[in-house]
Structures are given as structure tokens and as C-alpha cells.
Amino acid sequence: MEDWTQTLGTTPLLLIAAGAIALILVLIIWLKVHAFLALIIVSLVTAFAAGIPVSAVVKTLTDGFGGTLGTVALLVALGAMLGRLIEHSGGAQALADTFVRVFGEKRAPFALGIVSLILGFPMFFDAGLVMMLPIIFAIARRVSGNNVLLFGLPAAAAFSVMHVFLPPHPGPVSASELYGANLGIVLIVGLIVAFPIWYLSGYLWGKFVAKRIVLPVPALFGDVDADQPANPPKPATVIAVLLLPMLLIFLNTGLTTLGAAGAVDADNVVVQVLVLLGNSPVALLITVLVATVVFGFRRGENGTALEKVVDSALGPVASVILITGAGGMFGAVLRASGIGDALADSLGDLGLPVIVAAYIIAVILRLAQGSATVALVTAAGLAAPAVIAGDFSPLQVAAITLATAAGSVFAGHVNDSGFWLVGRLMGMDVKTTLKTWTVQQAIESVLGFLAALAVFGIGGLL
After folding, report:
1. Residue 35 CB burial class (10 angstroms; 0-12, 13-18, ≥19)
2. What is the mean pLDDT of the chain?
3. What does the alpha-carbon distance between residue 89 and residue 95 come to, in Å, rounded to a whole number?
4. What share of the chain has pLDDT > 90, as a percent?
């Protein structure tokens, strides 16, 4: 694969990508082929159409599949176990009742979104969403006539906004490094713009969609027990358990950032152990073990019963994990085809203002190959020389950083593993996911760019 060079031009590669996406939609929506099978079939066809060497096709597919599963499978499986333990113990229902009593039914979606924004500061998108799902589902059952979108979309959008615009998440950090931006300024500006972007693209959009699409809460964590336990854990206990992974992950990201800045010794054994404990899969594993004790043994459950409870969580999420991995496989094939490099070469000299060019390049790359990280790094790499050579103020460089990050999240669809993760976790089919989540991501991206453009203008006046 290292010696292979793509000979097709940008136009044929774009046509292949567009045809592959269309074929996936036809297979799943009209022919009712299972999404897992459809993604594998189209990935294989696309690899041959793009001219990837026959000897490398299977490796490209399996590497893309395994690379996605490496994180997604652990997070979803552990998150499902945690959710099932909370659900089975009656903790989710107890917390939902308290939540609604404190905030009221009308304000509950807004309050849950605010909680997700706070949790999303240190936690990556997928880890935060999976951890919050049992609470989202319980509150959705308690309120809203069992419509998951009223709570699910605002919460998912909150985690997405924080992941896209705020350090220490990898997107804004990577762009900041390439542009030479001041990470502190990027953080401050990101904090300022995050709330209005979420309010419009997450909260208001979620309320709008929920009135038009009634989506029952899926049985992701198994069937809800008909008779809730007589001794459910206190809501404060449930909150403490949910905060545990956030604190561990915050410790990881904080120490990693301080280590990169030279404020702490990154080679210190204690620091390395704390960073390890705050890694998302490890943090969730620790939380599951704590939940087993708190929601199981301390309430009188025995080991065999708890083993069955935990095991019952894995069946419903197996399809989510496999389909998300297959989505990662399809995206990997598009990246291996060289479509990103071809687009970058074609878009490198658009003659547009730097902040606009960086955003547009990130958007097109995101739509073409699915990976937000690839779109962001490629777009920032192309725009970096102009940014560094330009006479931009630190505030303007921060604005360009956020504009590029905004472009990298635009309209995630079938070539993005995150599309499948969100859709399947919330029990949506492909058409519904496109109408809800893909549109939300597009709105979030455009609003993020407009906010960055306003900050850029202010930076020019100072």
C-alpha cells in the first residue's frame, strides 16, 4: 500500500464517493438491506472502484473496522453495562423523578442539555453521550410521552459542541498547534460561543424536531423492570457515580495539557498512572466496577444476579457496535482512496479570505470522507502558511481555529462512524438520523462559522 499511488483525478474520486453514498442509501432505505451488510458491501465495491490494490483491499477494510471498534466497542459496551446497572437498581428512575421535580417538565430538556455541556467539557463526545444515555432515557420516559428526541438531541448536541469548539478536545487543540494560536484565547472564545451555538442548534432544534417526529425510547439497556426495586439508590448517589468518570477524564486531560505545557513532569510515574486512570475506557471500567458495588452488592444483590444484569446489557448494543465499526470501515476506504489529498490539492488556492477558505475546505473534506479529524487537520495544514504569514491578531487566529473546527463537523452522514453511533444508540433508522442528526450537525457548523467570523471581525478592530 505504501508504494501505491492514486492515478484518478479529483472528479472521478468525487463521483465514486457520491455513488457509494447513494448506493448505501438505496440499499438501506429502499431495499431494506441491514446497515451492517450494506456498509461492508459498499466499502468493498468502493475500494475496487477507487483502484485500491487488490492485495490491500481486505486490510484496508479490516483496519478501518478495527480502528473504529478499538474505542467505540469499549465505550459503548461499558456504558451499556453502567446504564443497565443504574436502570436495574431503580437509580435512573429515582434521578429522573428528582430531576423533573427540581426543574419541572418544561425546563427538563434545557436543564439536561446544560448538564451535558458541563460534562462535555472534559469528556469526549462518544464517552459522554454513552454515559448520559440511561438518564436521558429515564427522563424521556418520565416526561414527553416517551419521545427520546426531546432530550436526546439537545444532550447529544451539547457533547458535540463542546467536543468541536473547546480545548482540551483534540480538534481545537490540533488546529491551534497548526496555526500557532494561543490555546487560552481559543478556550475563552470557545466558552463564549458554545452556549448560543448549542441553544440554537441543539435545544431549539431538538424541540422543533420532537414535535414532528415521535420516537419511542429504545430498550438499549434491556427491558425496564416492571416493578422498580423497593430500595433504589439515592439520586445523590447516582450523580456521584456519574461524576466519577468525568473527574477521572478531567484529570487525564488536565495533566496531559499541563504536561505538554511543561507545567508538570509528563514522565513522572504518578502522573502517568493518573493519566491512564483518566483514559475514557479505563475511567468507564472503574465506574462500572464502582456501580456494581454501589448499585448491586450494597443493595443486597448477589454475584450471579449481577452477572446476568450486566450480561443483559450487551445484546442490545451489539448491533450498534458492529454498524458503527462498519461506518468507520467505509470512511477508511474513502480516505485510503486518496480523495482527501485530491480535494486538498484542488481547493488549496481558492482565492478566498483565509477564514472562509479554511472553513469551506474543512466542510468539503468532511462531506467527502467522513472523518472530522482528517477534515480539520487537512484544512488547517493547507491554511496554516497563510495564517502564519498573515498579519492577524491573536484573537483573529483563534477565530480561524474555531472556523476550521466548525467546518470539520458539518453534516455528518453515512461515511461518518459518529452518524451511526448516534442514530443506533437512539433507535433511529437512517432516514430519521439524516433528518435529525445530520441537519443538527450542519446547523451547528454554520452557526460556529458565523460566530468565528464575528470574532474575527472584532479582532480586526482591536
Report:
1. buried
2. 87
3. 11
4. 35
CA distances from residue 312 to 35, 95, 201, 286 in whole angstroms, order as listed: 23, 22, 35, 19
CB proximity list for 448: less than 8 A, separation 6 or greater: 164, 165, 193, 197, 402, 403, 405, 406, 409
Q: Name which of 432, 441, 447, 433 is nearest 412 in CA terms.
A: 441
| Cβ count near 132 (within 10 Å) | 25
Q: For 101, what's the count of Cα atoms within 13 Å in the CB-facing half-sphere? A: 7
**Cell numbers 461515511 correspond to what residue?**
415
User: What's the pLDDT tens digit per position in 133-156?
Assistant: 888 888 888 775 678 999 999 999
Structural domain spans, the chain: 10-58
Contact 183, 189 (CB under 8 A): no
Helix H or strand E encompassing 117: helix 108-119
The average pLDDT across 293-307 equals 82
Q: CA 6 → CA 315, 332, 334, distances in Å?
A: 41, 15, 12
Cell digits for 284? 468507564
Tell which wins on pLDDT, 321 or 444: 444
Backbone angles phi, psi at 274, to 5 degrees: -65, -40
Cα within 13 Å of Cα(420), Cβ side: 34
Taking alpha carbons only, the member of 43, 20, 28 closest to residue 326 is: 43
Residues 6+ apart with CB under 8 A from 174: 373, 376, 377, 380
Cα 135 from Cα 124, distance rounded (Å): 18
CA distance 37 to 21: 14
Which residues fall within 8 angstroms of residue 389, CB to CB, at 6 or more apart? Answer: none
Q: How far is CA 257 from CA 121, 122, 188, 192, 241, in A?
A: 14, 11, 16, 21, 25
pLDDT of 328 > 90? The answer is no
Residues 6+ apart with CB under 8 A from 358: 379, 380, 382, 383, 387, 400, 403, 404, 407
- pLDDT for residue 231 is more than 80: no
Of residues 38, 42, 35, 36, the one with CA closest to residue 17: 42
